[in-house]
Amino acid sequence: MRLPYAITDAAVVAKRNVIKIKRVPDLLVFTTLSPIMFVLLFAYVFGGAIKIEGSGTGANYKEFLIAGIFAQTVVFGATITGAALAEDIKKGIIDRFRSLPMAPSAVLTGRTMSDVINNVIVLIVMSLTGLLVGWRIRGSLLEALAGFGLLLVFAYAVSWIMAWVGMIVPSPEVVNNASFIIIFPLTFVANTFVPLESLPTVLQRFAEWNPVSAVTQAARVLFGNIPDGTPLPTAWPLVHPAAYTLLWAAAILVIFVPIANAQYRNATSR
Fold first, then answer.
1. Tens of pLDDT along 65-96?
2. What distance in Å separates the CA atoms of residue 168 and residue 164, rounded to the nearest whole number?
3. Which of 84-93, 171-180, 243-252 is the most confident on average?
4. SS3 of 51, please?
5. Which residues make Cβ contacts (< 8 Å) with residue 132, sequence separation at least 6?
6. How far apart, in whole angstroms, are the C-alpha atoms of residue 111 and residue 116?
7. How far apart are CA 73 and CA 229, in angstroms?
8. 20 to 30 A from 81, CA-CA: which of 3, 30, 92, 108?
9. What percent of the chain has pLDDT over 70?
């Protein structure tokens, strides 16, 4: 099937998934409530106990925090892709798609496209929450848009990993549990909530090369949320966080787009 038809089919599948969000608003409500709770808890409960180099005020910790919350949320949001695909397979919806004259790749592409839209909505809600607690964008509008763009690109890449996971596990519950075990330490053993200098040496080295740290650092730089006097990072991924994030996103897409599509064909041929 020619590329224009595959793109059109993917857009139709994406529209179907977006309409589902509208008809089942609980999905969006619980997706946004969790990061809002993290913002409030870390900003007001832990904010006074966490010291940021070059900054002695709680407001600056809130600015340090928000980019980390953004990164954590969009990465966890990518698990929706795997859970939704596992649910569609379980309910037989994928079998209905197979009976239609559509590109096989449209199902996964449409699913991941719709989750980008979901992440955009979540980022808007979280940005408004951040503004209410004292977060501010200190850089230019273009730099801020680039920061949001990097977060979405990285989340889109991770969603293809979750798409593959959704094809190989038996139920949405297993997807959520398996994803939590992997993603939770990745998002916490990073610079998302605390400066890397506060971590033990071994964890600090891991965090420096953790792609979640890179996308968080890139967002902070582009939002202008690096306090004056903050020590400059020395690890290459944090010196060039945007480039490192894009390298990871490209590598994930190159590996997992074909793997996920191959697994989709295997799963639907049973």
1. 899 999 999 998 888 888 888 887 777 777 67
2. 7
3. 243-252
4. coil
5. none
6. 9
7. 28
8. 3
9. 86
Q: Could you report the per-residue pLDDT of 184-198, keeping only the tens digit for each?
A: 889 999 999 888 888
Burial 75-112 (b: 16+ CB within 10 A, else e): bbbbbbbbbbbbbbbeeeebeebeeeebbbbbbbbbbb
The one-character DSSP state at 45 is I
Closest CA to 220 of 247, 193, 189, 184: 193
Beta bridge partners of 89: none
Q: What's the one-letter identity of residue 172?
A: P
DSSP summary character for residue 232 = P
> What does the pLDDT read at residue 5?
60
Q: Residues with Cβ < 8 Å from 177, sequence gap 6 or more?
A: none
* Range scoring the smallest mean pLDDT among 60-69, 152-161, 165-174: 165-174
pTM above threshold 0.85: yes
Q: Which residues pair with 52 in a beta bridge?
A: 55
Closest C-alpha among 103, 113, 100 to residue 14: 113
Domain borders along the chain are 3-268
**Residue of 204, 260, 218 whose CA lies nearest to 74:** 218
Residues pairing with 55 in the sheet: 52
Residues 6+ apart with CB under 8 A from 189: 199, 203, 206, 207, 210
Counting Cα atoms < 13 Å in the Cβ hemisphere of 160 gives 22
Give the C-alpha separation, 249 to 243, whole Å.
Answer: 10
Q: Which candidate, 62, 225, 47, 212, places its Cα nearest to that of 129?
A: 62
CA nearest neighbour of 67 among 133, 143, 123, 120: 123
- Residue 219 near residue 71 (C-beta atoms within 8 A): yes
